[in-house]
Write a structure and sequence with these properties.
Two copies of one chain form a homodimer.
Chain A lengths: L1 H11 L6 H12 L5 H14 L3 H13 L13 E6 L7 H11 L3 E6 L9 H5 L11 H10 L2 E5 L6 H12 L6 H13 L5 E8 L8 H18 L3 E7 L7 E3 L1 H11 L6 H17 L7 H10 L2 H12 L10 H4 L5 E6 L4 E6 L1 H11 L15 E4 L6 E2 L4 E7 L2 H13 L1 E4 L9 E7 L1
Parallel strand pairs in A: 1-2, 1-4, 2-3, 4-5
Antiparallel strand pairs in A: 5-13, 6-9, 7-11, 8-10, 8-12, 9-11
Helix pairs in contact in A: 1-3, 2-4, 2-8, 4-9, 4-10, 5-11, 5-12, 5-14, 9-10, 12-13, 16-17
Amino acid sequence: MSDVREVIARKRDGHALTEDEIRGLVLAYARGEVADEVAAAFLMAAFIRGLDTDETVALTRAMVDSGTTLPLEGVSRPKVDKHSTGGVADSVTLVFAPLAASLGLGVAKLSGRGLGHTGGTLDKLESIPGFRTELSGEEIERQVQDVGCAIAAQTKELVPADGKLYALRDATATVASLPLIAASVMCKKLAVGTDLILLDVKAGSGAFMKTPEDARQLAETCVGLAGRWGRACRAAVTDMSQPLGDSVGNALDIAEAIEVLRGERVGRLRDLVIEFAVAAQEVLLGSSAGDKRAGAERAISSGDALETFRRMVEAQGGDPRVVDDPSAILPSARVTIPIVSRSEGTLGAVDAEAIGQAAVELGAGRRRKEEAVDPAVGIVLRPKIGDTVGPDEEIGVVHARDRRAADRAVARVLDALALTDEPVEAPPLVYGWHDAG
Amino acid sequence: MSDVREVIARKRDGHALTEDEIRGLVLAYARGEVADEVAAAFLMAAFIRGLDTDETVALTRAMVDSGTTLPLEGVSRPKVDKHSTGGVADSVTLVFAPLAASLGLGVAKLSGRGLGHTGGTLDKLESIPGFRTELSGEEIERQVQDVGCAIAAQTKELVPADGKLYALRDATATVASLPLIAASVMCKKLAVGTDLILLDVKAGSGAFMKTPEDARQLAETCVGLAGRWGRACRAAVTDMSQPLGDSVGNALDIAEAIEVLRGERVGRLRDLVIEFAVAAQEVLLGSSAGDKRAGAERAISSGDALETFRRMVEAQGGDPRVVDDPSAILPSARVTIPIVSRSEGTLGAVDAEAIGQAAVELGAGRRRKEEAVDPAVGIVLRPKIGDTVGPDEEIGVVHARDRRAADRAVARVLDALALTDEPVEAPPLVYGWHDAG
């Protein structure tokens, strides 16, 4: 106990801690031998004083070593994991996983649930009747080998220290620390035995990092951690100054992802999925794969990616007919009302977080971890920054449980849009790539 | 809950908090509505970022308001409280209280138990058979009016937030913060309705503050807090580069205090008590009291102070014969062995904390709050800095439970003394006074 206090006092006074000091503290906390208040004091000291690269590596390693890992040794495909730091209308994983699988890669994606204004991939998939996200390590391994992709809940045995520390950070105003965020993101990825880690670090009004520069720093810290581990990692800083796709919800996101997989929908969501598919092929398939972009587009137009999605849904117990007729299979909301533009102009800015929050208020997300989500409700909003909007134009739809909630959501969405008379250039989709390994 | 996190985040980012923010957090914590880990994060942020004067006042006020107060309105004497920040062989309170009472003042002293290397006044008094330290507010008030002094345990109802926060600071490496220390010292004093607060801020190897400059800063912060409260306060920074008296123990301290009260013992302990008695008379009695130093010395030589001590012991259930024959009434240790100087020279420096720790190891103090103390054991060490010591001179005595513990304590005491061939000047007794009110 006195040792732990000495470690905390050293960080408090601005000194760098040794690997053994950080490891001892984190593993003892995971075992319940260090009290929450003691760990909280450490987190606040680390937040204010910072952690250098060695300390961040030690923290990440301790979190990995606090539990079991998922080596995926039985998978012969080149394996890729993909992670987003969280955004609004961000269904990249839902499309990327079957697309990459249809290109011969293996995608093992352990995912979390949505919290706050950002959606969660598990919540979205569970809107497909029967879909199971609780898979064992063996099930994941077998499915990645056979189908090519699996999207499952992170098990309690994987990086338990991370979950415990994250809950503590959430309670103690110590979330927004670059090294603490990077360690938390990367420990989950490093605990899974993949050949490439792809990171989508979002920047903008709907993201945790509000500026591309903040996002770049997080991307660099994460790829640096992977590099210290000897693991290949590519991180893209991508735009989240507006919702990526059009749909913010759970069933609505699934429906949109299926449209993209069917090749019926173009736009920024599809474009970003293709970017990640190209990046994955470049690292894992090299010159043998020919034109990576054309290959990815062909996997969509041929129906291969959609077919892989169907097989994944089937393998995880979901109703595969969702692929053929989403609206017949997915739950639908009792009330739908159109979002009608209040005036005309060019869309100059979007408060994407406010739109995410409006969806949360409809019931599509959670304010607290223990809340349930309503799979049917949500928002569809079509215009992107730079698009012109006419007066009284229908620009989207709110799906709600009742009329009152719907009206409130419409108002919140319209409040989140800034129209202008000036021409506006669309923001870039990808600000830049950062590599390690 | 989210409000508390916002408050913590503001302190984390270096902003000053409002009185309402600090008050809300501290009172909610005292009521159990804010979790330990949340308060720990606040304490670490406050430790690193600091608290300004307004924030420290707000913290102190919240701690006072977390419980009941002891107004002492039924006491007609001018009332004084005296507090030491903790030292070794520091029995000033035991002599000061009856001395000041015999001069017509009322001394209401709520005290704590010893922890670590510094002794506790309650532990010392409880070595007198029958002595009760758990007094009600009414008992304290009546005794201060009738006898002139009472030394009792702080009740659970007084400043409960302080005890709870102190325990949390102890667990989370957030003790050594000037504003947190000052608020903790002063809330206990401000909760008691006295006319003057005297503070003895110790500086040196046996004190919490190792340098006079650090002690001066704490003294200034404390008198500043009292001033903001409109309360009279005088703080002395005094020497703790060596044990103040000769005795480090519980019964041994009582015996030494009685010797001082009988006028049989001169030296730094008596000198410091006189300094505090002079300071108290200056503020509370003014010119009416004549020569304050002579008056204090007369109260000892006349036996008035000793008689007041006897009445206090009797009023609190202790055996009053302790005053006449301490060795017959106080518990004595099974083993006593002399401390014999290893060489000759002038005493140049003393590690007073090590001597306090040696006494703790003998059983005279506690390492943890829940431990019991042995009233009989301890150390008597006579030489002060600047004194010459002959070869093989008996310079003190160890009182122990067994021979092995005694030998270990003798070695530790001798290790704590630095003899030199050069002449050494004795350190000042009082570095300076700081006033408010």
